[in-house]
Amino acid sequence: MDIVEGIKQITTVLNDYLKPFGLVAEMDYEFAYYWESDLITFSLLDIPEASNLFLLDAESRFPQIKAPFFIWALHHEIGHNCTYDDLSEEEIAESYAIKNKILETEEHSDNDKMLYYTCPDEYAATDWAGNYIMTHQERIAKMWNVVSDIIRQLKESYDDEERS
Ligand SMILES: [Zn+2]
Question: Cα(71) to centroid of ligand 1, in Å?
């Protein structure tokens, strides 16, 4: 499958999935939420260094959920959108303070990095994600069946090209 066509198809499926939240999807290098444009960026890159600690935090809080990184990350970003208005000014200030402290530290141990997930905004986003994933399994499976199949086809065409 052509990479541009594959990304176009995934974006269409995700836009449809995000419509009830008033959000739009766009591919980028990483998952992120941009509140000013109601945009969620997704990534097809698989970088364990970036996803391992996030998954460690999410799975320790929701051990009953067996979901791929893509699903956890996508719903964490939707969670930012759905929980931001519930955060108090103190919680937002605390989130900034922790994130700034992490940014200022030069050497990061995994423990330092795990601090990130204790930020009230990050904690709330993953909390929202876990609850949504548990209660909307059918809706998620319908979307993920299509998206994961496109990803599989993209990987196959890539592997074929590598070999030839
Ligand atoms: Zn986040």
Answer: 14
